[in-house]
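This follows on from our talk about sequence and fold. I would like you to pick a protein and set down its sequence and fold. Go ahead and set the record down below:
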Amino acid sequence: MIQALKTQVFRNFDQAEHGAWQTVYQNLEGCRDHQAFPAFNDGLKALHIHGDRIPDLEAVNERLSKLT
């Protein structure tokens, strides 16, 4: 059987990479408040995606699975 899905291997991002994520996330925060569809912002909150560090997609997928 061929494995159709591959899991993401969450690597340890360094502080510079998390810093880049923080900068982008913060710079787009004002745009999200008035340009993003409200469900997008609700999704960020529900999935615990914050600007402090790059999200671990495995953890995000686990939360998403519980919500759907």
The helical segments are 15-35, 38-46, 57-67.
